[in-house]
Amino acid sequence: ASSPFVVQPDSSIVFGLGSLAPGQSGIINIVDTIGCPTTPDSSSRACFSARMEPVSACSQVDPASIGWDGSWIDGKAKFDPAIQKVRFTLYNRGANMSDSTRMNLGFFGSSIYAQSIKLTAGDSISWLTEPVMNNFLGLSVKQPLNCPVGRFGGIVHTGTTGATFYLNFEDGWLMNQTATACPIFRYSYDPNEKIVEPVDPVSPGTELSYTIHFENFGNDTAYAVVVADTLPPGVDISTFRLVGASHTCTPRLDGTVDNPVIFFNFIPIKLTAKKEDSVRSKGQVDFKIRLRPNVALGSIHENKAHIYFDRNEAIITNTVVTRVKEPIFPTLVHAVVAGEKRLKAYPNPANNRITVQLPAGYRSAKVHLQNLQGQILIETEMQQNGQLNVEHLPEGLYVLKVQGLKPVSILIVR
Known about the structure:
Number of helices: 1
Radius of gyration: 25 Å
Structural class: mainly beta
Number of strands: 29
């Protein structure tokens, strides 16, 4: 790596950045080697998560001034091949906990284990589970009262080859300091190409990560490279941000709101011809931009880039495609087992309100709407037919529950 680092016992890598002034930024380049399968698999991925935090996440906060005991919960999940189990671990990174808090372990929409925990400073607690292959096993924990890093934390794990771990502190400070990426393993490829992540269907408002690779195949040095990228109309140009580039690069926005064009100017660049140096002949640019939150479900967004070396004709990259997810529950038509009692909710996807219909025989019931971390967001007593106001909830997938009935997944879109 381009900066000194220390490898922790859990294989995480820690870089000491020293003191950073407000607005200060920088780049750390990391080179690593991973084992690739003998037979290329287009679906193989490698997941990386990076988190930036002070040595003490709350060193500038006086706990007594906000009614906080000074404790905060962190965590990780990792598959242990020696015992063929997944180990979920929670750590108290702060002071002694003055009161217990609640953890919940389970699958999407259901809980399999819950426990109250109370940890002293530096203490930890672990749970072993069987690995999950075709689903996600999640652990959520409520942070101590008035904890400034947020109200909840979460870990999600799947598979046996490694852990997919991230902190999800909702409205807390750490959420904005965490980034996760899961790029696909790539084998031989066109040196002038464009890549988009995620490759799977996405939700409206999703942030897209674009990478454009270019290489000088000419017989002399290229002194100017311009990459012109006409973006699809479904993106929100106001969310564009340059992530990184191999050489000094100046982006310029052009076009219209509905047909934005971004020019990446590498001038001067001095890109060596490949026949002279196969490494210094390459370059790339990385940027992110979000789909509009109101983009049509099921829509397709195609994109390609034009690369100009000096005064030569453009080299056109491949076309990348982003598909927006189809409505998950387009209708309420489903096969019903004779005598089965079902909870119904519509419209689904929903926007501002959800109509809930209890099955015959239920004159009233307590209805819960919760997020995927198990946090109850709405709890109300409802007659056989009623409505829930969800206009204050962000886009995403939620679970509607009534005791004794099968939960219903609700997709909220804007």
